[in-house]
Amino acid sequence: xxxxxxxxxxxxxxxxxxxxxxxxxxxxxxxxxxxxxxxxxxxxxxxxxxxxxxxxxxxxxxxxxxxxxxxxxxxxxxxxxxxxxxxxxxxxxxxxxxxxxxxxxxxxxxxxxxxxxxxxxxxxxxxxxxxxxxxxxxxxxxxxxxxxxxxxxxxxxxxxxxxxxxxxxxxxxxxxxxxxxxxxxxxxxxxxxxxxxxxxxxxxxxxxxxxxxxxxxxxxxxxxxxxxxxxxxxxxxxxxxxxxxxxxxxxxxxxxxxxxxxxxxxxxxxxxxxxxxxxxxxxxxxxxxxxxxxx
Length: 295
Known about the structure:
This protein folds into two domains: 3-82; 93-287, Vaccinia Virus protein VP39 (Rossmann fold, 3-Layer(aba) Sandwich). 45% of the residues lie in helices and 19% in strands. It has helices at residues 3-14, 17-30, 39-53, 58-65, 70-82, 93-112, 130-141, 161-169, 182-188, 200-203, 216-219, 239-252, and strands at residues 118-124, 151-158, 171-172, 189-192, 195-198, 206-210, 225-230, 253-261, 274-279, 282-287. It has a five-stranded parallel β-sheet. β4 (189-192) and β5 (195-198) form a beta hairpin. α1 (3-14) packs across α3 (39-53), α2 (17-30) packs parallel to α4 (58-65) and α3 (39-53) crosses α5. The radius of gyration is 21 Å and the shape is globular.
């Protein structure tokens, strides 16, 4: 089969009006917008599900997606295909340095005023779990120092069920652990066949669950976070969806909290309720505090 004939089905699918309708269903369900330039990719992802279901046309597949009850389950499976993340342990070292030297001491100082020694962190769009486990290891390193006597809670959420199952298993190959130092490998990992598994001490600090960031009701239950991380997730959203999700992050973050995006992402033109703060080779956002109306 020639290359041109191999790509012909995808090209024709990309111009199918039912693909546009499926794109709208995905947007309504999760806020994920596929521009016209990405329609061939969406067609490919639909094609995987259609092959699994033995469905021949996009019209028939759209009917599956809109069936009462069963359609919701199929949408979850399609979203598993659409949202495929890529990450690794200790992905952004300057960010971790900023946490240790600046952010955590500031949070500890703010928490001392209310005498609550519990740190709550949310890894939103956690993918296969490397970010959440990295944060857990970094906290354990400080548990006898600045965080002595503290407890930690890390909520890690993602839309993709397969990614979450991988995260819960906590077994990773060479690519994921390429930035892990010998110290951390020895202290927090155990060999499993030709891979490494995160130790129970680290896994016990992290709770994984499926969460659609477009689910307003579920988002309301993520209150009281000291730190929120959401790296390379907003790239899936258009401006309207970004603003809706960012408003939830704002509401769920403590007044003294910090909000971290991916190092190439920005809230410029999206939200003016956050203020950008700079660290050495890293950035974060803090809440804009309302001005007092004193005379």
